[in-house]
Specification:
Elements (H helix, E strand, L loop, with lengths): L11 H6 L3 E3 L2 E2 L12 E3 L2 E2 L7 E6 L30 E2 L8 E7 L2 H8 L7 E7 L7 H6 L16 E6 L2 E6 L6 H8 L4 E9 L2 E2 H4 L6 E3 L7
Parallel strand pairs: 7-11
Antiparallel strand pairs: 1-2, 1-3, 3-4, 5-7, 5-13, 6-7, 8-10, 8-11, 9-10, 11-12
The chain binds uracil.
The site of uracil has 9 residues, from helix 4.
Length: 224
């Protein structure tokens, strides 16, 4: 019960006493009784995400991927019960406060680790607009595998830049360095104006039909 964020471990006995948990139509009365979360109803409803929580959120602008910073947090957009789950629900990597778009959240630490591991190279696509025109030479520079960012010891992995206008395009990254898209575009003289993540691996934001702030459950198997 506490694993799924219904109540604290101490409160479980009270919940059972009140008959709020049933299995095959019968109340489960003892906290010592083992029950498969898929077999029980709590207040008549199935347990949400009994095998782990995996969701895609369309992150709005202006909120932060952090549990404790001041201001609006991505976690404020989620049902309160999810935030009481144990293990905790976390974002899979981060987006900047002023970046919108596709963000995964999970309570599965192994999934989170696998998706953010630099060895996995899960492609992520960012749609951007810039203040100045992006020099067309950036396409080759970014693809070269030799593009160095200030303060970094190793060059960026080859990245695909597709320009859709003088000041707009899409950049596909296979790694996730700090503020990477903003830093790469600033380095070629085209500071970012707007930035949205539109794809993570097989998942495309446009296929999900999510308004900013909305989320949907996803199947983690699509990433394996
Ligand atoms: N690159 C950035 O600069 N910001 C993000 O939020 C993601 C990638």
């Amino acid at each position: 019960m506490s694993r799924y964020g219904y109540c604290s471990r101490r409160e479980v006995a009270q919940w059972l006493k009140r008959g709020r948990v049933t299995r095959a139509g019968e109340p489960v009365r003892s906290p010592n009784e083992k029950a498969d979360p898929q077999d029980v109803l709590v207040d008549g409803e199935p347990v949400e995400f009994p095998n782990g929580l995996y969701v895609a959120l369309n992150k709005p602008l202006g909120c932060t991927c952090s549990h404790k910073e001041a201001g609006e947090l991505v976690y404020d957009l989620l049902p309160a019960q999810w935030l009481r789950r144990n293990p905790a629900v976390n974002t899979v990597g981060r987006l900047d406060k002023e970046t919108s778009g596709l963000l995964l959240l999970t309570d599965d630490g192994a999934f989170e680790h696998a998706q953010t591991s630099p060895r996995r190279h899960v492609p992520k696509v960012y749609a951007f607009t810039t203040e100045q025109a992006v020099p067309p030479a950036a396409v080759e520079q970014f693809a070269s595998g030799e593009f160095m960012l200030q303060g970094e010891r190793t060059p960026c992995l080859p990245a695909e830049l597709r320009l859709t206008g003088e000041c707009a395009g899409r950049l596909t990254l296979h790694e996730g360095r700090y503020h990477q898209v903003r830093r790469m575009l600033a380095a070629v003289g085209a500071p970012v104006l707007t930035l949205e993540r539109v794809e993570i691996g097989p998942l495309k934001l446009e296929d999900l039909n999510l308004a900013p702030g909305e989320w949907v459950a996803i199947d983690p198997a699509m990433f394996s």
